Amino acid sequence: MQYHIQEAALELPSEGFIDRSVNVFIFGDPALPFNVVITRDYFDEGSGIEALLQEQLRSLSTVGKSYKQIDVSKTRLPLHGPAGAQLVNDTDAPNAVGAYVSYSKQGHTIHQRIVLIELPERKALVLTGTHAAPWKPHHEAQWASILQSVRARPQ
């Protein structure tokens, strides 16, 4: 199978490995950056991205102090539409779940949004936005733009 990264493409066996690659993007002031991290995960057969999100939230709740789950929601992203496509139909089944949490770590209150996007073969693409302060309108706009731009590629 041909595997693509930003800088190159490489051949990997079509079976026998698990993709746990991580992409880290840092925006803004390096002293107080806004980070977006993209990881890959898998959910158990008979399970789904909602259960996977709950697992991740349980894990996060032990990372720092003063953990707060502020919001949990489901949505539908236009993963197969053309670039710039908006949500097609509110009645379509959700293909993404997300949460907004905060917690204290090393004297900072971390504000984090997590979105899990369901992909074929029980895979999930996990996008996490993190800032060591409440998100500002430009963080919200950047996050929304990133989510709306995600397009699934054929496997």
CATH architecture type: 3-Layer(aba) Sandwich
Domains counted in the coordinates: how many?
1
As a percent range, the share of helical residues equals 10-25%
Radius of gyration: 16 Å
Number of strands: 8
Residue windows where pLDDT falls under 50 for at least 5 positions: none
String of helices and strands: EEEEHEEEEH
Number of helices: 2
Q: Which class best fits the helix and strand makeup?
A: alpha+beta
Shape by Cα distribution: globular
Distance between the termini: 9 Å
Strand content: 35-45%
Main sheet strand line-up? 3-4-8-7-6-5
What is the averaged pLDDT score? 88
Would you kindly provide a written description of the structure presented here, covering whatever features stand out?
By secondary structure, the chain is an alpha+beta fold. It contains two helices and eight strands; from the N terminus they run ββββαββββα. It has a single domain (19-149), classed as Protein Transport Mog1p, Chain A. A hairpin with a 2-residue loop joins strand 6 (96-105) and strand 7 (108-119). This is DUF1795 domain-containing protein. It comes from Paracidovorax valerianellae.
Chain-wise SSE layout:
Layout: E1 2-4, E2 9-11, E3 22-27, E4 34-42, H1 49-60, E5 65-75, E6 96-105, E7 108-119, E8 123-131, H2 137-149
Antiparallel strand pairs: 1-2, 3-4, 4-8, 5-6, 6-7, 7-8
In short:
By secondary structure, the protein is α+β, with helices and mostly antiparallel strands. It has a single domain (19-149), classed as Mog1/PsbP, alpha/beta/alpha sandwich (Protein Transport Mog1p, Chain A, 3-Layer(aba) Sandwich), CATH 3.40.1000. The chain has helices at residues 49-60, 137-149, and strands spanning 2-4, 9-11, 22-27, 34-42, 65-75, 96-105, 108-119, 123-131.
